[in-house]
Amino acid sequence: MGCVVDAKQLFDEMPKKDLVSWNSLISGLLKNGCVDNCFDVFHRMKNEMGLPLNEVTFLPMISACTEMGAIDEGKYIHCFVLKLGMLTEVKVVNSLVNLYGKCGYVDAACRLFEGMPVQNLVSWNSMIGIHSQNGLSLEGMEMFNELRRCSYKPDQATIISVYQACEDLGIGKLAEAIHCLILRCGLFMNTIVATGLLNLYAKLGRLYASQNVFNEMFSPDKVI
């Protein structure tokens, strides 16, 4: 915390502050867990300096809102993003989607997602995870199937989100299908993915399959 105080003091003593220095201070505060201070700096930056805000400003602010579950502050940031015409910035919209989803506003997250001019794998992963985390696992699996129809290749984050949906739905055959997909995509060598699959089978009562995954992970022929 002392380093944060020193950084703020040095910042205040700077004769000239530009957008980079303000953004650096906000990011540094967030990384050090000083979430509340991020909002103070943001308002000071906006009100006192009148500097134009950019993507680098908004991303840590949206992350701060998500971490705190501060949906009202998040909506406030969303209004600024909208006003500045930044809903075309994929990273910013992905962060807003994640914010609304983590705060339980699934419909708002869906509207943002559907309104994106371009969606990437991070966008899809967020939507799958959001539905699963909010008790909408069937809808999460539908999002996953749509992702596959759009020819995206799943990554670690995709599979981890799907595990939650599979567990909630309790369908062993679905876990087997995901297992096959993991092998086809070359993700079994990923320790997090393989361990998650082992745990999924165990939670579904498929202990034999879980043991097989364990044996495969630690086979002398495998390097994980």
UniProtKB/TrEMBL annotation:
<dbReference type="GO" id="GO:0003723">
    <property type="term" value="F:RNA binding"/>
</dbReference>
<protein>
    <submittedName>
        <fullName>Pentatricopeptide repeat-containing protein</fullName>
    </submittedName>
</protein>
<dbReference type="InterPro" id="IPR046960">
    <property type="entry name" value="PPR_At4g14850-like_plant"/>
</dbReference>
<dbReference type="InterPro" id="IPR011990">
    <property type="entry name" value="TPR-like_helical_dom_sf"/>
</dbReference>
<dbReference type="GO" id="GO:0009451">
    <property type="term" value="P:RNA modification"/>
</dbReference>
<dbReference type="Pfam" id="PF01535">
    <property type="entry name" value="PPR"/>
</dbReference>
<feature type="repeat" description="PPR">
    <location>
        <begin position="18"/>
        <end position="52"/>
    </location>
</feature>
<dbReference type="Pfam" id="PF13041">
    <property type="entry name" value="PPR_2"/>
</dbReference>
<feature type="repeat" description="PPR">
    <location>
        <begin position="120"/>
        <end position="154"/>
    </location>
</feature>
<dbReference type="InterPro" id="IPR002885">
    <property type="entry name" value="PPR_rpt"/>
</dbReference>
<keyword id="KW-0677">Repeat</keyword>
